[in-house]
Amino acid sequence: MQRLCSFVIAGVLAATCAGTALAQNASGTGQQATDLFTLPAGLASFELEHEGEGAFSVRLLDEQGELIDNLAAATGAFRGSKAVRVPRAGQYLFDVSATGTWSIRLRQRAGEGPVAAAGTEAVSDSLLRSRGSYYGAQEANRIGAFPYMLGGLLGGMVAGPIGAGAALAIAAGRDSPVPEQMQDTLATREPLYREAFVESFQHRLRTNRRTAALVGGVTGTAIFAFAIVQVINWSGGSGGTGGPGNGEQP
Length: 250
Fold this sequence. Notes:
Blueprint: H1 2-23, E1 26-29, E2 32-33, E3 37-39, E4 42-51, E5 55-62, E6 67-75, E7 78-86, E8 90-97, E9 101-108, E10 120-121, H2 125-141, H3 146-159, H4 161-173, H5 180-186, H6 191-239
Antiparallel strand pairs: 1-9, 2-8, 3-8, 4-7, 4-9, 5-6, 5-8, 7-10
Helix pairs in contact: 2-6, 3-4, 3-6, 4-6
């Protein structure tokens, strides 16, 4: 009888613990502030996923709305983990900003084994650089390069290859800062991620602008050459026509 009671008590405790763990998991679509859930003091590791093309950020807040840590700050599809130090046992919630579907899962609690150092992502340096490079290039692709195509077109039409070359040089030599709305997001990321993001952003931006200026310059130069040929043909045709009284004398 005593053994049976022990099994029953153990089952109740297991069900209670499972219910608590589930309360610390969340999923949804778009922007949302989750219900409050309980976390013990110490280290806690969260796994996060996002399926979408826009910005994705997750903040861990206490019941007073005070920020404990930023769990994620990315653009586009994201899958990663974050270990944070929970200052005290109490009620907490996730503040999520997203454009697609997302999920958050408590992977490990304090005292259940080793976790990553507080405030660091459990991902390798190479993966951080790879993610930064990918999302930096994606952000650059969202910035249009039409002004540089127009500059190449006008330069080629007015001055031929010289004008097109000048427009291409301007496009290749001009850097632009990361958009202001992305700078706040980058400030919460790892140094390696930020470095790779900015490098990839600038490289892709220059490449897109050079390509646009080249296409516009080639088109403008072709128009310039066609106009020159037409002027030459017109001048030649006008010079070969004799006026009145210019015939041979007998």
